[in-house]
Design a protein that fits this description.
By secondary structure, this protein is mainly α. The protein is built from eleven helices and no strands. The longest helix is centred in the first third of the chain and has 26 residues. About 25% of the residues are buried.
Length: about 240
């Protein structure tokens, strides 16, 4: 049996498994719920995460984005459309394709500004989105530069699903989720957090250093760029 045939057999087994089917529905609903509120907020013209200070790095970005006018509105419309498409069985693939660049951008942004509000959820949403793309591979393959003749056509919804529990898949998924969460939380030794008091709490409050206090002040009181505050922090530690 060649590699192509093995893959096709593996893929058909997944598509006809009840638990994988349930998991795909779960991913669709969770991803849709993740975009719907934020999208509607943008459409009605309100600033997303309005409680976040404009001095905080993500707050600075969201404040600037809020003032871009119809560009801000269009992002909200795209998020709502992607969410709705994910909820409709026939348009899941289209929704996942629209969803992917938006959530990847949010994920990269979250790590770039060290925003705790989405530094964990954003990468998990990217993984859920990729799962949906893989789940709909039988449709996705037609827009990929591959030899279609060696692959099955679109797989119809089975009359009877296999009830065999994919233990290895869910153990692997749980392990990946743990690694992503652990990696996201401990990616950085210092983060801005959402407020000045929260920023201070990440340090030992008994032995908090001048450099650490100045970092929080640089971010939340002075509103300086994150990179400058980090550079000043590193320089202060050396002195």
């Amino acid at each position: 049996m060649n590699t192509s045939s093995k893959f096709n057999r593996f893929y058909v087994n997944i598509k006809t498994n009840r638990w994988h089917y349930y998991f795909s529905i779960f991913c669709r609903i969770v991803l849709a719920l993740g975009f719907m509120p934020s999208g509607i907020t943008k459409i009605i013209g309100e600033r997303f995460a309005s409680g976040l200070s404009v001095n905080q790095p993500m707050g600075q970005y969201l404040e600037a984005l809020h003032h871009t006018g119809y560009y801000y509105t269009m992002i909200g419309i795209a998020q709502v459309i992607a969410a709705i498409l994910l909820l409709i069985p026939r348009t899941v693939l289209l929704g996942a394709l629209l969803y992917l660049p938006i959530i990847v951008n949010i994920c990269i942004l979250s790590f770039a500004v060290r925003f705790e509000g989405s530094i964990v959820t954003a990468p998990l949403m990217v993984l859920a989105n990729l799962y949906l793309l893989c789940w709909n591979y039988d449709k996705l393959k037609y827009i990929l530069p591959i030899n279609e003749s060696s692959y099955h056509s679109i797989i119809p919804k089975p009359i009877n699903y296999s009830s065999k529990f994919p233990f290895r898949f869910f153990v692997t998924a749980a392990l990946i989720t743990f690694i992503v969460i652990f990696g996201a939380i401990y990616s950085y030794d210092i983060v801005p957090r959402n407020s000045f008091s929260d920023c201070q709490k990440q340090f030992n409050e008994v032995n908090i250093s001048t450099a650490e206090l100045e970092f929080c002040d640089c971010i939340h009181n002075k509103g300086n760029p994150l990179n400058k505050c980090l550079e000043d922090y590193e320089n202060a530690k050396i002195e």
